[in-house]
Amino acid sequence: MPYLPSALLIILGLVLLVLALLRVFRSLRGLSSASRLARARFSDRSGLLRARVAALGVAIAERRRNHWGRRDGGERAGATR
After folding, report:
1. 3-state SS class at 58
2. Which 3 state secondary structure label does DSSP give 3?
3. Which residue of 1, 12, 62, 69 has the lowest C-beta tally within 10 Å?
4. How do residues 34-53 score in pLDDT, each as one tens digit?
5. Cα 49 from chain centroid?
6. Rounded Cα gap, residues 46 and 49, in angstroms
């Protein structure tokens, strides 16, 4: 039975390999959830930023229209009768 020590070393090596792989997969799962959370937060913040930029564009356009456009009497702003 000279092959017994070799077989035991192979089995021990496989057990250690499985344990190492399980540990790596657990770490990857944690990394995946952290990555998903970071991506969601980034998406939320970029969506809020896009909404703020759009609101600012609307406010500027409205201000230009009110300042340079026609008012109630059909006159231009600042014009005299």
Report:
1. helix
2. coil
3. 1
4. 999 999 999 999 999 999 99
5. 13
6. 5
User: Across-strand partners of 76?
Assistant: 70
Measure the CA angle with vertex 14, ends 11 and 17; round to 5°.
150
For 79, the token pair is 């014009």
DSSP 69: S
Distance (Å, whole) CA 68 – CA 62: 10
Lookup: tokens for 11: 């089995």
3, two tokens? 């092959």
Q: Coil, helix or strand for 18? A: helix
Dist CA 81 CA 55 (whole Å) = 35
CB 43 within 8 A of CB 36: no
For 22, the token pair is 């399980």
Judge contact between 81 and 75, C-beta under 8 A: yes
